[in-house]
Amino acid sequence: MTRNETTGPQNTPPEPNAQKQGADIKEFGAPLAQHPIQTISIIGQIEGHMHLPPQNTATKYEHILPQLVMIEQDPGVKGFIVLINTVGGDVEAGLALAEMIAGMSKPSVSLVLGGGHSIGVTLAVAARYSFISPTASMTIHPIRMSGVIIGVPQTYDFFEKMQRRIVDFVCAHSHIAPEEYRRLMMKTGEIANDCGTVLVGQEVVDCGIVDAVGTYKDASEKIKELAGIQEQEELNIPKQ
User: What is the pLDDT of residues 37-46, one digit of tens each?
Assistant: First the structure.
């Protein structure tokens, strides 16, 4: 005679897909799941050609670029949201990401949460439509360079060329005039031991840099509108 025995609860290992999503969140700040709307997070400092100290919270631009390529090439992705909370970072890495976002065929919406400072401004305006949360801020200032600076005219010419790249991009993808943006960059008396301007929430919109003040709900609704996604289509997500 055989006896049927019941076994107690067992600790079953997570499914491979769950493990992969957990690793994606740890590495990229978002799950790389198949979904009509993809989310990309740019958090902390933007790491470019030089590795930042391990204690720094950083977003590696070489991680974000492949995600953007995946979004562009995946027919299942209809649009994407860029969540931004950054102090800035590598100028050329930030510009590379901004140019990539602006040049994609898939619609995009950016949302600044906390702060979108320095080169983070270019990332915010690179999206097709941009939001900033009511309490988030942006610091607009000239570019800076650490290390040894050779005090010759060629150095200052180089700085001006780098600065022009940022001003041209921001003004081409927003509603602020170059003269006004430069005025905000060179303003004195607001930032201790430095020049520049700090703008918060509605002030950023009033200057013409960002399109609207909003929350994640607003950004989510806007990207669905731009992508032409109906609610029932959003819920029809293929199972993996």
Answer: 999 888 887 7
Residues marked active site are found at 118, 141
**Residue numbers of the domain that contains 93:** 36-47+55-228
CATH of the domain at 82: 3.90.226.10
Write the DSSP string, 142-176.
-----S----SHHHHHHHHHHHHHHHHHHHHTSS-
Q: Compute the Cα dihedral for 112, 59, 221, 19 and give only its sign.
A: negative
pLDDT 10s digits, 85-113: 988 777 888 888 999 999 999 999 999 99
pLDDT digits (tens, 9 = 90+) for 105-134: 999 999 999 988 888 899 999 999 999 999
The total number of structural domains that make up the chain:
1
Is 211:205 a contact under the CB 8 Å cutoff? yes
Residue 75: inside a domain, yes or no? yes
Residue 30 — left, alpha, or beta (φ > 0 → left; ψ -120 to 50 → alpha)? beta
Angle, in degrees to the nearest 10, between helices 153-172 and 91-102: 30
On whether residue 20 sits in a domain, the answer given is no
pTM, 2 dp: 0.75
